[in-house]
Amino acid sequence: MGRPLPADRARELDGWRLAYVSDAPVNWCPGLGTVVANEEVTADGRSDRGNFPVFKRNMRQWMMRITTYADRLIDDLDLLDWTEAIKSMQRNWIGRSEGAMVHFDSPAGRISVFTTRPDTLFGATFMVLAPEHPLVDALTTLQQANDIAEYRRAAAQGRLRSPERRPREDRRVHRLVRHQPGQRHADPCLDRRLRAHGLRHRRHHGGAVRRPARLRVRPHVRSRHRRHPAPPTDAAAPTTWAEAFVGDAPYINSANDSLSLDGVATVAEGTHLTNQWLAAHGHGEATITYKLRDWLFSRQRYWGEPFPIVYDADGNPHALPDELLPVVLPETDQFSPRTFDPDDAMSNPESPLDRLDDWVNVTLDLGDGLQPYRRDTNVMPQWAGSCWYEMRYLDPTNENDFVDPANEAYWMGPQTEGGSGGVDLYVGGVEHAVLHLLYARFWHKVLFDLGHVSSVEPFHRLFNQGYILAAAYHDERGMYVEAAEVQAVAGGYQHEGRPVTREYGKMGKSLKNAIDPDDMCLLYGADTLRLYLMSMGPLDASRPWESKDVVGVHRFLQRVWRNVVDEHTGSIRLLAQPAGPTQSACCTSPSPRCARSSTTCASTPPSPS
Predict the structure, then answer these.
(1) What is the SS3 assignment for 9?
(2) Helix or strand or coil: residue 389?
(3) Residue 179 region by backbone torsions, left for phi larger than 0, else alpha for psi between -120 and 50, else beta
(4) pLDDT tens digits, residue range 153-193?
(5) CA distance 547 to 549
(6) Which of 474, 477, 475 is nearest to 44 (CA)?
(7) How many Å apart are CA 155 and CA 45, to the nearest integer?
(8) Taking the C-alpha atoms of 217, 221, 227 and 232 in order, what is their torsion angle to the nearest 10 degrees?
(9) Cα distances (Å, whole numbers) of residue 386 to 67, 72, 351, 437, 453
């Protein structure tokens, strides 16, 4: 272990690591003192638990650079025996888009916009910036300042939805900040005039988007709706512009002093020529972008794997050496985070680990003598364990490695030349398509690149079981309540005295309608629960849960048991002599539940009745 790297060199290297620290947008709820998931925020921008305001904040978080593997995550799907539906979900989630990054000048500075159709730049009509874009303040006029400030506050609290679902007052502001005449600038790229206001957030386009010509369906519809005329750029488009044209046809109105697409017959050629022109004139370059963002890997709570990271007096991170691993959670009786004033949007989270000074502050020798350090008080998400647990099953008693390479190669190694390897059959729900399954594939590929595994993919064949459906209930806010606590009343259902609405959905935590299998086992036994689940229908079909049917399965198993075991003595029922081809497997002694004597059973076949 050598001396620590100089701070500037260490920071440069950290910028290329797969695991790194960065500012990331999160849902911060001061009233709860924690970051909450999108599913835990109501349509009004409040927490489902406690009904506290939720604010969008940038916070220092650990990230995993999954975007580095975006192309491999898409391309290697062809190696897998998965349904095309699941593959499409992952491809769409990663969202690889080929196009161009185009640079526009504005009074406040350069604005870079990604577009999949650079050939339509001659028909662009306006540009839109995200609320957090650094040029918004410089481009905002005094007349627009109040409206834009309110728009930003609404966006921070998650109150802005699609224009069709947005409240009327929000739609008014939305149109005002997008379309009010104001600052314009001459576009030096394609000699077109663009508006550079607006606060529409597009996370995968660098915080800025443009509205292109009517060669694309959704922009065309929105341009018509907002009375933002777009010039025709294609000769095949109808003069009334009732619908957008999306096919190949000769370009028109698409020329400037140094580039002309007029007469070009295909989109591919028009895009190629435009990309060449952009690069030659310093106005952009051909680019591939992804909707996939780097993986937010921090949680502000107690339960979870601690990060094996400490920080020096200057705030630089240092990885702990192997001899100090694993980092074990400290003992505590306080598991709740610190809470703040519900409206204190600028407060910062304090996890339960932050309060444990004896654990947080340590003195270590990491190659530069004894120095004071501070532990990282975030923990990893639950995905950290589920990304690789299948390999631990291969070698569960190994105390030196997570899996012996020989065991991994035997059970998960590729079986054919060019095969993916991995688990032969993985049975899991479709809800894991873009979470667990995507994260596990990324994690596995990192291990493959490091030489720890021989398989390229973790799960070769995937089978999606159907959903178990059950009644779920939501209140007037649209938030789900515990189904077990709902009471049937005249004319409907109530939860804690308040009316709720019933629906049917997938049984699980999100709808709060799960039934604890332990409770069912205590009431009826594990065999009853297993048989009921297996008899509900095909494994890949969704089916409703009915508790009364569990009772019927339980009674059936009781009858089977009584045919095999004497209910008075507990002994196994046996035939008096070995069964022949005409003998039945009936009980061998008279019983109130046996219609024939043992002699009859042993000598004659059962009657058709």
Answers:
(1) helix
(2) helix
(3) alpha
(4) 777 665 554 433 344 333 333 332 332 223 333 232 333 32
(5) 5
(6) 477
(7) 9
(8) 30
(9) 20, 21, 23, 9, 17
